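Sharing a chain and its predicted structure for anyone who wants a worked example. Both blocks are below, sequence first, tokens second.
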Amino acid sequence: MEMPNHLMYRYIYGIIPKKEPESAYVAIHHNGETWHLFNAEKMPLGRMAQMIAIFIRGKHKPTYAYNRFDLGDRCVVVNASKVKVTGDKMNQKLYRHHTGYPGGLKEILMKDLVEKHPDQVVRRAVKGMLAKNTIRNILLDKNLIIHAGPYHDHFAQKLPQFLPKQPLDINKELGLDSFTKEDTTVIYESNPATSPAEFKDLPRDLEKNLDTPIPWEKKTHKYGKDSYRKAITLKRSYRGLGKYK
């Protein structure tokens, strides 16, 4: 097997490539459409937004027209909550908007916006790179799909997952696998005579207060339907006599 030149130079300088490549972008062709999948955790925000703006606008196609909004490709972004930025933009970059009322200028830091609405960070970056015209919001709503987590639900388009989904182990999540049978004690049983087989050899420490029933509260009085109807009729009659006062 011949080694490519770029890998040969890497080995000469001691730069060994990683065994597991960190994917950041995948393009899939499905039913005549092209779907672009981006990993916001591995690609800088500005570079990713630049590519998305070109793809959803359709500028990479020879059939591009400036007044058409149906020529672009679909773009899916995952890991928006872990968006990658350079420098100290998380603590320095401000997003501003005005509510339209006096003194309605609102400001929010990038790190706060990522916590509250991670999809808005990617959407605003792409929106700023599109032409300021009437079809800008149509392009974003139609061709841009953003997921805050690492997984997406576009299985029909054959889009891969950057991170394989691990099955959830309930015992490990709740810490139940650390318990042993010697550390377990039966505190309450609904019917000790018919206890399950796995609980028969466990020590009993039954609570006596748990077996006492809760006393029901009894009503001291109640209103009948006749008295309720008479009260409504009397109220209506007084209301009708108000004009004679």
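Comments welcome. Helices lie at 5-12, 45-57, 89-92, 110-116, 118-127, 136-143, 170-174, 225-240.
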